[in-house]
Please model this.
Amino acid sequence: MPHDWDSPEYVRQWIADGDKADAQRADQIKLLASLIQCRSQECIHVLDLGAGYGIVTREILTAYPNATVVCLDRSAEMLKHGKERLADNLSQLDFVQANFDTSDWLTPLQENQCFDAVLSSRAIHHVVDERKQRLYEEVFHLLKPGGCFANHDLVRHPDEPVRDSGNPLGTLEDQIRWLSEIGFVNVQCFWRDGGRAVFGGYKPASA
Ligand SMILES: C[S@@+](CC[C@H](N)C(=O)[O-])C[C@H]1O[C@@H](n2cnc3c(N)ncnc32)[C@H](O)[C@@H]1O
Model:
């Protein structure tokens, strides 16, 4: 069934299913936040790309209680659920509705805004490989020097054919290579279990 992130009914069902599976991915979400590598009391500024109902943002706020987070998602319905779930921390959060299918997603971000980290979970696989590469470049430019990009996502085995357009998974190997080519350093896969991985890298401190 194709994803319909604009449908309240589809999103409600997806969240109900997602809630049941959250415990199974708790370690990977923790790992994402741990890759930021700042001191826990620092007032870091983070972008949660494809934030959905806010599971990554919740973990960022647990690890970094003084953080501010931009929760960006194309789905107004997902953002509504995110706001409800993160109601205790609204003063630290900015909810932005934008679609990273094109570079237009950058427009609603505040001018000159840059981030200590950009984290994403299970969202970027929805765009085709060509767009993923461009998106990673855009993320690189949004990061402060030394900033972290980490992605927990579905990945394709190199022998597997590309699937339907709703889930055009890229291989882990390609995505690692693109990040290095863009200029990220310490690029690596931090965790992998079959078709799921946590990978990313850092913008050089001198960039
Ligand atoms: C599978 S959910 C994951 C949500 C959350 N990150 C999590 O791990 O629970 C995918 C999310 O990515 C968002 N998304 C998918 N394609 C997107 C795009 N092109 N631009 C912005 N958000 C997108 C969807 O609206 C949805 O909220």
